[in-house]
Amino acid sequence: MKSWRFTGTNNPLELVELPDPVAGPGQVVVDVKAAGICHTDVGILTDPGWMSMLGQVPVTLGHEDAGVISQVGGGVTDFQVGDRVAICPTTSAGCPGSSFDGGFGPKIVIGTQALVPIPDEVDFVKGAAATDAGMTSYAAVVRRGGVKQGDKVGIIGLGGLGQIGARVAHLLGAEVYVAEIKEDVWPLAEELGAKDVRRSIKDFDDVRFDVIVDFAGFGDTTADAVDVIKLGGVVVLVGMGKLDVTFDAKSLIVNQCDLRGSNGGTPEDIKGVYELMRSGELDPVTTTVGFDEIPEAIERLERGEVKGRLVVAY
């Protein structure tokens, strides 16, 4: 099977022929129907800091995966061939595209503890987007941010994660404000239920935020959030646009800012996202590309030319 392999920082992806995987005990083989492309993929390709987080190199990237089970291994009784499933990348089974070969190839072998059934009402593209963008956004807002009805919530970045985070916060009954530098996507903020949208979180002079979730993570975005959070407020850092952050210690101390990191989520978070998708309350914007377009699509994402979540549709 042809797969796009990462071989090292600043090396282009290589299209190579690999043998089809075989399901071992407690495992299944999933035929990939959709695989998300993430800023993590950009980081892996361009930043050597990511090398220590990879379980193997070379590796087929693609950690946001949805598909159909085509083979089951010994002892598997809770799933069967033909089931529509997504893969949670944060379980003890490991992370596709990091611990082992992921969705930038046509088949993945994975332990059943990572599988989440996809409701019939959710297509594979949305199903894939939910496994990282959806899960991570949901967990950051609901569990790490503790957002509740009536909170004033700032969302930094209205990309693939931010749009989901903004919508989830709105559905929780929060008053949502979006900071996004790309003004062409501002109308989307209103569609998601945001009260206002501006270029920077610092532009909301009249708002005292209970919670700010930074889905961009470009250093200055987090520093700005720490500067403007209300006394005792929570800043959640999700985005890894840059791996280094410098903020004003005075702001952190005087504001008694509770600065939290948030990384991924759980299968239960994915199920929560699927329930919102199934009901029609959550319908994230996606941009789809073909398998042969993966390297160029990653470059487009790096240049900021993608609207919504970028997903490979097989």
TrEMBL record:
GO molecular function: alcohol dehydrogenase (NAD+) activity; zinc ion binding
Documented EC number(s): 1.1.1.1
EC class name: oxidoreductase
Obligatory cofactor(s): Zn(2+)
One Pfam family it belongs to: ADH_N
CDD domains, A to Z: hydroxyacyl_CoA_DH (cd08254)
Gene Ontology CC: cytoplasm
Domain Enoyl reductase (ER) per the UniProt entry, residue ranges: 8-312
Keywords of the record: Metal-binding, Oxidoreductase, Zinc
Highest taxon, organism lineage: Bacteria
Catalysis performed (reactions): a primary alcohol + NAD(+) = an aldehyde + NADH + H(+); a secondary alcohol + NAD(+) = a ketone + NADH + H(+)
Family: Belongs to the zinc-containing alcohol dehydrogenase family.
The name this protein goes by in its record: alcohol dehydrogenase
Organism whose genome encodes this protein: Bifidobacterium eulemuris
